[in-house]
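Backbone Fold Data
Goal — C-alpha cells
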Amino acid sequence: MIKTFLLERKGWIMMFLFQQLIILFFAYIDPSIPFFSVLYFIYLSLLAFLVFLVFRFRKETAFYKSLKEWDTNLDVSYLKEPDSPFESIIEESIEGQTRQLRESSLALRSELEREKDELMSWIHEVKTPLTAMHLMIERLDEWPLKAPLMYEWLRIHLLLDQQLHQKRISFIENDLSFQSIQLETLLFKEIKVLQSWCIQKGIGFDIQLEAEEVLSDAKWLSFIIRQLLSNAVKYSEADDITVKSYEKNGQVYMEIKDRGIGIAPQDITRIFEKGFTSTGKRHDHASTGMGLYLAEKAAVPLLIRISVRSEPESGTVFTLAFPKRNDAVKIISM
C-alpha cells in the first residue's frame, strides 16, 4: 500500500523536490542569500514534508485498505467511512452497484427457484403415468416384447431420477437426514430396479457384505449407489458384478466391481467431470455424462470419498469410503 500511495502522490513529491532545487539554485548563484541558511531551511522543509506524507498516508489509505480487504459479499458496511469527497463518490458508486447486484441476484434466485419447483413438479407428475406403464409392461407374457420395453422404461426412469436429483443437489445440505442404514436392504432395492436390464444382458450380482451398516443419508446414498450400479451394468455383458463391503481402521468401504470394458487411462482422471462421456470404446451417444459427476458431488456433504481403478478390457472398481462413525456423528450434531 505504501508503494501505491507514493506512486499516486508522485506529482506532489516531484513538485516539492523541484521547488527545493530552485531555491537551492538561486541561493547558489546569488551571493547575497546565505547558502547554508537556505540549506537548513530545506532540511526542515523535508522533515515537515515527510511528516505530512506519513499523516496523509494514514488518513488517505484507511478507506482504500478496507476496500482492498473487502470480500465483495455485497455488504458495504465493512468499508471505512469516506474522509474526502472523492472517497464519498467511490462509496456511493459501490453502494449503487451492490444494491443493483443484490436486487438482480434475488430476482435470478427467485426465477431459478420457480423453474426448479416447476421442473420437479413436472417430474413427479410424469412418474404417475410412468408407474402405470411399468405395471402394464409387467403384465406382458411375451419376453421378446417385454424385455426391450422394460429397458426403455428403465432408461426414462433413471434419466428422470437423475434430473430430479440434479435440481435438488444445489440444496443438498438442507435435505440430509443421517441415520443407520442396512446396506443389504438398500443394495437389494437398487438391484431390483435394474433387474430387467440385468436379465436382458445376462448379468448377475455377487454380494459380499462383511460390514452391514453405515451412518449416512438413505436417499442420497441410494442415488450414489444407483449411479455406480447402472454404470457397471451399462458397460458389462454376460458377467457378474461384485459388490462387497468391509471395515478397515474403523472405516467402512464398499466396492462395486464389474468385468466390463474398463476405462481408458487418459479418461480415468476425467470421468467425474460434468458432461464427460469418454473418448474410447465406452463412448455412448445416449450418455449424458452427468451420473458420475452428480454421484461425486452428492458424496461430498456425506463425507464419502469415491475412488476408481480400472484396466481396459478387464473391468472397473469403484470404491466408496464412508466416514468414520465419529465424523458422521459430528455432522448430525451440527
Remarks:
- Residues 2-99 form one domain.
- The mean pLDDT is 82.
- The first strand starts at residue 178 and ends at 182.
